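Suppose you are handed only these lines of text.
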Amino acid sequence: MAGPAAQTSTGTPVELRFPKNFWWGAATAAYQIEGAVRAAGRAPSIWDTFSAAPGRVAGGDTGEHATDHYHRHRHDVDLMAELGLTAYRFSVAWPRVRTGTGGVNQAGLAFYDRLVDDLLAADIQPVATLYHWDLPQELEDAGGWTHRDTAARFGEYAAVVAARLGDRVRMWNTLNEPWCSAFLGYGIGVHAPGRRDQAAALRAVHHLLLAHGHGTAALRAAGVTGGVSLALNGGTVRPRRDTPADRAAARRIDGLLNRIFLDPLLRGAYPADVLADTAALTDWSFVRDGDLALIAARLDALCVNYYQPDLVSDPGDHHDPGTPYPGAEGVRFHPTPGPVTAMGWSIDPTGLRDLLLRLTRDYDVPPLYVAENGAAYPDEVTPDGRVRDVERLDYLHRHLAAAHDAITAGVDLRGYFVWSLLDNFEWAYGYDKRFGLIHVDYRTQRRTVKDSGRWYGRAIARGGVDRPR
Ligand code: IFM
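From them, the structure of the protein bound to 5-hydroxymethyl-3,4-dihydroxypiperidine can be written out as follows.
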């Protein structure tokens, strides 16, 4: 890292310069952008089923058409190149690869083959996530993530994708945010498959981690050239007041958000306090001999997705039966002071810096990547064809500066991916929430690079950003 006002390749001085070879990326996920849900033999996923059910997704929206990326991916790669991205994180849709009867659909895989080749031709590193929430419906019908066999099926799927793309994908994420899959999907049912059973959510946690273990083994057995990782929701959990009750609330939420995944992955054991906190729901007897050794296989990198910190208290008189954190019904969540995004999420870049520092301090971590960071705002294209998304630009600027602070403090951060490349299907919120660097008119599928996208492109060209004022 150079000091203040280092000279960039473009000749403009930059105050906060990122390391050479830093990955400047953007991220997406299959169901959120691809559309074409019946193309080339794609089988139904739990999100097709969930979004088709009345009342599950705002506005009755579904991913049926989404941003039609499946048909427009060449144009989208051109836009990535125009921004100057050096890496792109996408997900492979398991239901495009697995036929509804358990076979392999080579025609579905061919789409990702073309995408990866197009990315490489544009000098953009392909980063592939194998599971970003679109479980084949047929596997959910057999028990989904509460069923141990699903983890083994995931390992087989990873082997199939690795055989086809393993020579060209530069980094693999087995899973994206297993916290959401387990707790939102099986615990409180606001995500597919819409089950409401906290004990089932804890089984799902373990089977998702087991899937990561099988997937990692399969990728390595296939000799993939890219590193193996997974992307976790990265949370910085803070007590609202410095009292024993609030500190206990923060410990409990940190356990169920972070350590329930980090400890088995990086230390080979579930945390004792999490097992105790959830003892009324499960005895964890679904954890079998050998599982934790598989789960704790060496990672080449760790990816974290960060949006906002959690500020928690335990007021003693609170009971939230709808909390996604099993056994933490007494904990109350508070916004941090200041503005929020269109999701109602607090804006606090120090949470990102502290997360990266904490991971580095508390665990023997491999190189880190911020695999998602971004903000939703109600953007509009003005008559002159621009999207003046100053709030998103400011959000990204401040979070990049916080990431730089972490690097300066010794964190081995190798890349940063904006969520998201394109406006897209924001799960239970439908198309209402726009996160993209590129605006999508869902009626015409016209793409418009937002001001934040142009700013990000300049940051990439400069290799850094100035200190936000
Ligand atoms: O859109 C999601 C993404 O799929 C996973 N991480 C959070 C994003 C914003 O909610």
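What can we learn from it? The domain at 15-466 is CATH 3.20.20.80 (TIM Barrel). The chain has one domain: 15-466.
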